[in-house]
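sry for the spam today, last one i promise. struct tokens for design, 190 residues
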């Protein structure tokens, strides 16, 4: 940010104002996420184009960027891979894009180690006819900690037990073995 010329920063600030951000909001954005401000407007436009191709209107894209400007920090590949995965589970392209706009945290998470395993648990727990509606309307399954997710979804623990070849942690019975009592010293002679 310090190496960026004043003219370039002014251009970027003007560009961000099109999303309804005020001068102080753009300054805050620059301070918190300098990578968003220092990239070229062409790079940012390329990322916005990916969102537009999903069926989001210009107004929806503006709302998304205004609400979650960090979307511009992610590669087009990251955004596209999330849209493709959401489509693969049955969401339309538009619903996938709306999901990203509603729950942008999915952009920060690994598909392979977090999102897909959690979705598989939800698939196991929820009736198939309600699963997509449940996914579309809630992002809590993404943002809760692993511990809370495991407690909330017992099948996660069962699945984990199968993968590890052990029982679910909730079902493991611990055998309590009494600790050995120290033997008293022999009586001392008179």
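last one done:
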């Amino acid at each position: 940010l310090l190496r960026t010329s004043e003219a370039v920063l002014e251009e970027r600030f003007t560009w961000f104002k099109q999303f309804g951000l005020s001068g102080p909001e753009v300054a805050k954005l620059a301070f918190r996420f300098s990578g968003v401000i220092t990239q070229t407007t062409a790079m940012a436009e390329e990322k916005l184009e990916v969102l537009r191709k999903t069926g989001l209107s210009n107004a929806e894209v503006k709302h998304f960027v205004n609400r979650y400007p960090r979307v511009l920090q992610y590669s087009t590949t990251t955004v596209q891979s999330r849209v493709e995965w959401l489509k693969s589970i049955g969401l339309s392209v538009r619903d996938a894009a709306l999901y990203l706009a509603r729950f942008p945290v999915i952009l920060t998470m690994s598909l392979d180690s977090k999102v897909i395993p959690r979705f598989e648990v939800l698939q196991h727990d929820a009736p198939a006819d309600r699963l997509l509606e449940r996914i579309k309307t809630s992002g809590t399954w993404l943002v809760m900690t692993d511990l809370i997710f495991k407690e909330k979804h017992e099948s996660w623990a069962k699945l984990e037990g199968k993968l590890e070849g052990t029982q679910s942690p909730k079902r493991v019975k611990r055998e309590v073995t009494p600790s050995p009592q120290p033997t008293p010293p022999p009586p001392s002679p008179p």
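DSSP finds twelve helices and no strands in the chain. ok im logging off now
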